[in-house]
């Protein structure tokens, strides 16, 4: 069941939160010795919390719990620090998901209770990092939703390699403790509706959060976030406890008063880029992601257009690494960020979406990625602050998932969710072929 289906059933008392959580804990008990997706499992605490949810529903408070009884994983041992709005909405945290352990190369795998985290599709491959356990747990159906954080692609890459949906929000839109401003919270789920439910809960809790320290919404080199005013969140939570709709916002994140009648859908314009102008992704990955983009255009989910000037970003690696290296000269980061922001601003002035492969390669083995950066196509948007979502695009010749990345203007999470939701209806559900443990 999806998170939305679980919450609806618990609110209507068709299911009890205790039974839902007990079933999730049993799935984890059976599967985690193989997947190694969890660092800790909080069985007793989770069942106690589920009982409290059932009591509140029985007392007539179901409308206050849009995610009543939904079992979730939280990224790492400190994941509960950012999960407050989800718990307030009725979620039940069942455990902490795996992240890279001490000495583990950051591009590779997570380290769970029983060993290194494996990809549910192929156990000889990594699920990606650093939200490794969250992606594996969601893909294998242990929980419908798990939190992540994305400082260079750490939500989107595992989402792509595990065949699930992963959202990175606009930098500064939700609280983050990262001094550089590069990392932002995110979520992994099996369907877009559940991602929208996450965004509804989180954005409602953090209305008015600043989007940047300048008129263009960028994040400062010192990691500080200044105010440029509040932007209305998409995916608001209704008084009846339902999450939705994804919202009608223009591509600058402002309420779109010309969106048409309810149910109308105006396909947004989108630009395809196989490499962002600087990378060399594997041709097979590009072909699969491009095929998915074409399929979305043919289905009416979006309209592919050619940019006036082909997108050619500077490689963000030197800037990202400089920002993460104490004492490094910030000048290269400043130059690269300014150049890339200018080019992205020009692109989003003419188009509403940018489409790319999520990762430049298939999931690699547990020995590591070698010299390849799996972040090549994702960390540019941690640097620029744009929101991005990875949706499944298909399978590579080895049977591993490939992701398609959708990027929008700052503050336009609603647009990403709306397009991804339409895409899901036309080419999803994507995870039904995932190998079960």
Account of the 3D structure:
There is one protein chain. The protein is an alpha/beta fold and 437 residues long. It has one domain (3-427): Amidase signature (AS) domain (Amidase signature (AS) enzymes), CATH 3.90.1300.10. It contains 12 helices and 13 strands. The chain has helices spanning 3-11, 17-35, 43-58, 84-88, 132-139, 156-162, 192-205, 283-299, 317-324, 331-350, 380-384, 413-427, and strands at residues 38-41, 71-75, 92-97, 111-112, 115-116, 145-150, 165-168, 184-189, 269-272, 303-305, 353-357, 388-395, 401-408. The strands form 2 sheets. Strands 1-3-2-6-8-7-12-13-11-9-10 form an 11-stranded mixed β-sheet, sandwiched between helices. It has a two-stranded antiparallel sheet with strand order 4-5. Strand 2 (71-75), helix 4 and strand 3 form a beta-alpha-beta unit. It is globular, with a radius of gyration of 20 Å. This is Amidase.
- Computed structural class: alpha/beta
Strand order of the largest sheet: 1-3-2-6-8-7-12-13-11-9-10
How many beta strands in the DSSP annotation?
A: 13
Which regions contain 5 or more consecutive residues with pLDDT less than 50? Answer: 210-261, 431-437
| Beta strand % | 5-15%
Give the second-level CATH assignment, the architecture.
Answer: Alpha-Beta Complex
Largest sheet: 11 strands, mixed
Rg over CA atoms, rounded to whole Å, is: 20 Å
The ordered H/E elements are HHEHEHEEEHEHEEHEHEHHEHEEH
Number of helices: 12
Distance between the termini: 17 Å
Under CATH, the homologous superfamily reads Amidase signature (AS) domain
What is the count of distinct domains? 1
User: What is the CATH topology descriptor?
Assistant: Amidase signature (AS) enzymes
CATH class type = Alpha Beta
**Average pLDDT across residues?**
86
Q: Helical amount among residues, as a percent range? A: 25-40%
Overall, the morphology is globular
Region (Disordered): 234-266
Pfam families: Amidase
Family: Belongs to the amidase family.
GO molecular function, one term: catalytic activity
